[in-house]
Amino acid sequence: MPVTARRTSLSRAQSPISSEASTRPIGRALAKHRKTKPATAPRAAAAMTLSVGLAVSGGAALSLAGTPQTADAATSSAAKTRGSMPIKTKPALRYGDSGSAVKYVQYRLRIPMTSWYGAKTRTAVSDFQRAVKLPRTGTMNKRTWGSLFYIAKHPIKKKSTGSTTFHNRVLREAYKLRGTPYRYGGTTPNGFDCSGYTGYVYKKAGKKVPRTSRAQYSATKHLSRSAAKPGDLVFFKNSSGRVYHVGIYAGGNMLWHSSKPGSPVAKSKIWSSRVAFGRA
Q1: What predicted TM-score, i.e. pTM, was given to this entire model?
Q2: At residue 126, what are phi and psi to the nearest 5 degrees?
Q3: Fewer CB atoms inside 10 Å of the end CB: C or N, the chain?
Q4: Cα–Cα distance between 103 and 109 in angstroms, integer?
Q5: What is the three-class DSSP state of 37?
Q6: Which residues contact 72 (CB under 8 A, 6 or more apart)?
Q7: Which Gene3D superfamilies does the protein's record reference (predicted)?
């Protein structure tokens, strides 16, 4: 009897299941009944590798590793290729390039040789282009390379602004004092002796020399006649080699000097072969 009751309860419990199964759609009806989800495109996150690990302290450590940037790698490779090309090919160098060709440009433009075409190199190239009257692009093009090679073979001589300027001042001051009377021991425009005249002229031009002709000779750098410039000092020596007179070399075997009583400051020929030249 207990067994029969159990079977009855089981059959009743199963009947709803059978009924529900009988009402399910089958075949095409089942296909229509199901709703298909639209396919989604791979997300940007699929291009990344996501790794989650546990930190030593026990917390969660999250790291994202991006895929290689192939475009950037290609650009970097092209920049190195251009920067390392032979200079005879006149490569078109620009900002961001690197290599031996860039280093050569930096060497010629006298800037730090880093081998990288950065802002300083671009500015130096632009300044060079302006100096040779080319369009200021800041990049190394064919015309800029041509000018750079030409300058390398034919360096621009810088104008001397040191000793040449001083020597010109000496000659101007010497000329201003022409006609000043000779006076033994004189050091002013009221009258000069030989070393008083040279000392005064040099002081006005910007350099101080000792008072006497012998002291001036000792204080100067001795030069050959061929190396002497107008504005240097000319020292006259006697047969024993002692200096007895000094003047200002005017070039072409001439000098400015205050020679003797009755003869004012004037430009004269160098009358002796026993002379020496000095530069203060």
Answers
A1: 0.46
A2: -65, -40
A3: N
A4: 10
A5: coil
A6: none
A7: endopeptidase domain like (from Nostoc punctiforme), PGBD-like superfamily/PGBD
Amino acid identity of 93?
A: L
Q: Which amino acid would we find at residue 161?
A: T
The sign one gets for the Cα dihedral 57, 58, 59, 60 is positive
Are 173 and 205 a contacting pair, CB within 8 Å?
yes
Whether 48 and 64 have beta carbons less than 8 Å apart is answered as: yes
Domains of the chain with bracketed CATH? 75-153 (1.10.101.10), 163-279 (3.90.1720.10)
Which residue's structure tokens are 């004189």?
186
d(CA 112, CA 115): 9
Q: How many CA atoms lie within 13 A of 59 on its CB side?
A: 3
Q: Are 170 and 201 in contact (CB under 8 A)?
A: yes
Amino acid present at 193: D
5 or 193, greater pLDDT = 193
Q: Which amino acid is at 135?
A: P
Scan for tokens 């030593």, then name that residue: 56
Let me know: does 86 contact 101? Beta carbons within 8 Å: yes
Query: If DSSP codes are grouped into helix, strand and coil, which group holds residue 78?
Result: helix
Residue 46: both structure tokens together: 């699929």
Residue 169, C-beta contacts closer than 8 angstroms, at least 6 positions apart: 204, 205, 206, 231
Distance CA 176, CA 161 (A): 22
Average pLDDT over residues 51-66: 42
φ, ψ of residue 233 to 5 degrees: the values are -95, 145
Give the residues across from 230 on adjacent strands: 232
User: How many angstroms from the chain centroid is the CA of residue 182?
Assistant: 56
> pLDDT band at residue 70, thresholds of 50, 70 and 90?
low
In this prediction, residue 45 has a pLDDT band, given cuts at 50, 70 and 90, of very low
